[in-house]
C-alpha cells in the first residue's frame, strides 16, 4: 500500500486517554500506572512497534497522544502532502527502535507540561533514543535506511530540547543535523520515501536556522546550507503549512539576517537601494493559500501575514538608529512605520487568536518581536495577555522562556531610560549602556539570562 494513502489509527484508546486529549483533565495515578492484563488485545498498528516486549504500560497512551494530538495539530493542513510528522516520521517510529523512543519522548515531554508525572517517562525515552543514536554513529558505514533514521532521531531530539524550555542543546543537535544532511546528499539513488524525507529534513533545518539567526549570533561555519524552496510545493509564494508562511518569505527573512550580522569592515558594503528593495519586496509579498479548500479568513492566511509583518519589523529594528551595536552602513528607516508593524501584529493576533491557538503553527516569532519592540504600556499589556493565553494551552515548552526574554528586554529598556535621565542630570556619567555590545535587545537579554538559545519555531 502506498504510504500516502494510509490512515494511521490507534484503537486501544481508553477513557483516561480521552480525558487527557479532549477534556484537558489528567488521569489518576492508578489509571496511568496500572498494569495491563496480558490478555488485553493491542491494536494491529501498535503490535508492529519495534521492541514490543519491553513496552511499558503507558507507552500506548503516549503513542496515541502523539498520533491524535501532536500530529493532528503540527501543520495547518493535515494530509499526506503537507503533514510530514504523520506520514513520514510516524511510520518510521513504528519500524525503528530509536524513533519509537524519540516519538514517545516528545509525547511524554508535551504531556509533562500538564502533569509532572510524565517527566520520568519523557527522560527514560529520551535516554533510549539518544543511546540508540550514539550506537548508530559508531557504525563504520551507513546505508540509506541508517542515515534516514539518524536524521529523524536528531530532528526529534532537537524538537525535544526546544519543547523543554528551549534548552541550548537544541542548537547543538541542529548543527549535527546539518552534518548528517551533507553526508546524506552524497548518497545517490535514494528511494522515493527517502527523497520525501530529504525534502522535509532540509525544510526543517532551513526553517530553524533562519529563525535562530534572527534571535542570536550563529557562527558563520554553521550557515553553509542553501535556503531553497521545497520542491514538493508548486510555488515559493504558497504558504507552507508546516512553517506557517511561504518559502519566499523565508528567503527574505534570511536576507534581513544577512544585513543584521554583516560586519562593518566587510568588503561588500550595503547600499541604500539594497535595503529599500528588501523593504519593498516584504511589503509587496503576496502569500497564497496551499489549497483551495482553505477559507482565506481562517488562521492560515492570518499566521502567514503575521510572519510577514514580523519580517518587516525585524528589518526596521535592524536599521533602527537606536539599535544596539548598529552597523553604520545601514540606512535608517521610518520609526513610525516600526510602531505600525507592532500595532498590526498585535491586532492581527488578537483578532484571530482563537483559531491560531488550535494549531502548533503559532505566530510565536512575530509576537516575540512585537513584544521586544513594544514601547507603549498598552502594547505591553496585550503582549503579556497573549503570552499568558499561549502558556495556558500547556503544550508548547518554548512559550515561557520567550515571555521571560521579552520581560527582560522591557526591564533593561526601562533601566536604560532611567540611566539616560541621570546622565542628562550629570549623574553616573561613566555608566555604560546596558545593551552595549549586543546586536539586538533580545540577544542581550538572552546572554544575561545565561546565554540562552531561544527557539521561536
From TrEMBL:
Of the GO CC terms on this record, one is: nucleus
Chief location: nucleus
Any one Pfam family match given in the protein's UniProt record, by short name: Fungal_trans_2
GO MF terms here are:
DNA-binding transcription factor activity; transcription cis-regulatory region binding
The alphabetical list of record keywords is: Nucleus
Compartments annotated for it: namely: Nucleus
Q: Which GO terms describe its biological process?
A: positive regulation of transcription by RNA polymerase II
Concerning InterPro entries, the annotation shows: Fun_TF (IPR021858)
Q: What is this protein called?
A: Fungal-specific transcription factor domain-containing protein
Amino acid at each position: 500500500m502506498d504510504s500516502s494513502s494510509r490512515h494511521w489509527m490507534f484503537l486501544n484508546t481508553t477513557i483516561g486517554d480521552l480525558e487527557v486529549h479532549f477534556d484537558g483533565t489528567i488521569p489518576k495515578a492508578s489509571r496511568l500506572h496500572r498494569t495491563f492484563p496480558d490478555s488485553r488485545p493491542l491494536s494491529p498498528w501498535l503490535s508492529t512497534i519495534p521492541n514490543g516486549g519491553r513496552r511499558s504500560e503507558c507507552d500506548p497512551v503516549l503513542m496515541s497522544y502523539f498520533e491524535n494530538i501532536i500530529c493532528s495539530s503540527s501543520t495547518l493542513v493535515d494530509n499526506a502532502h503537507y503533514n510530514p510528522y504523520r506520514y513520514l516520521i510516524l511510520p518510521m517510529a513504528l519500524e525503528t527502535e530509536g524513533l519509537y523512543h524519540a516519538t514517545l519522548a516528545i509525547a511524554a515531554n508535551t504531556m509533562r507540561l500538564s502533569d509532572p508525572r510524565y517527566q520520568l517517562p519523557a527522560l527514560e525515552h529520551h535516554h533510549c533514543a539518544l543511546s540508540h543514536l550514539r550506537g548508530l554513529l559508531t557504525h563504520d558505514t551507513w546505508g540509506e535506511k541508517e542515515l534516514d533514521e539518524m536524521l529523524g532521531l536528531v530532528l526529534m531530539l532537537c524538537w525535544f530540547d526546544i519543547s523543554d524550555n528551549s534548552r541550548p542543546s537544541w542548537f547543538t543537535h541542529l548543527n549535527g543535523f546539518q552534518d548528517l544532511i551533507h553526508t546524506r546528499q552524497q548518497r545517490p539513488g535514494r528511494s522515493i520515501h527517502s527523497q520525501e524525507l530529504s525534502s522535509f529534513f532540509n525544510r526543517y533545518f532551513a526553517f530553524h536556522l533562519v529563525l535562530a539567526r534572527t534571535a542570536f549570533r550563529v557562527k558563520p561555519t554553521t550557515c553553509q546550507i542553501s535556503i531553497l524552496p521545497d520542491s514538493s510545493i508548486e510555488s515559493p509564494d504558497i504558504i507552507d503549512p508546516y512553517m506557517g508562511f511561504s518559502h519566499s518569505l523565508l528567503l527574505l527573512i534570511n536576507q534581513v539576517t544577512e544585513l543584521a550580522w554583516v560586519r562593518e569592515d566587510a568588503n561588500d558594503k550595503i547600499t541604500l537601494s539594497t535595503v529599500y528593495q528588501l523593504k519593498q519586496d516584504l511589503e509587496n509579498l503576496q502569500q497564497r493559500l496551499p489549497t483551495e479548500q482553505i477559507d482565506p479568513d481562517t488562521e492560515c492566511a492570518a499566521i502567514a501575514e503575521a510572519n510577514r509583518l514580523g519580517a518587516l519589523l525585524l528589518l526596521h529594528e535592524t536599521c533602527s538608529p537606536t539599535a544596539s551595536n548598529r552597523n553604520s552602513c545601514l540606512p535608517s528607516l521610518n520609526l513610525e512605520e516600526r510602531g505600525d508593524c507592532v500595532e498590526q501584529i498585535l491586532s492581527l493576533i488578537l483578532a484571530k487568536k482563537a483559531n491560531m491557538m488550535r494549531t502548533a503553527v503559532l505566530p510565536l516569532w512575530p509576537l516575540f518581536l512585537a513584544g521586544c519592540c513594544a514601547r507603549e504600556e498598552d502594547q505591553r499589556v496585550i503582549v503579556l495577555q497573549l503570552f499568558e493565553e499561549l502558556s495556558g494551552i500547556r503544550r508548547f515548552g518554548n512559550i515561557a522562556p520567550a515571555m521571560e526574554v521579552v520581560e527582560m528586554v522591557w526591564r533593561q529598556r526601562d533601566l536604560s531610560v532611567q540611566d539616560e535621565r541621570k546622565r542628562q542630570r550629570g549623574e553616573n556619567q561613566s555608566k555604560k549602556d546596558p545593551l552595549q555590545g549586543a546586536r539586538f535587545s533580545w540577544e542581550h537579554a538572552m546572554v544575561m539570562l545565561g546565554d540562552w538559545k531561544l527557539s521561536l519555531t
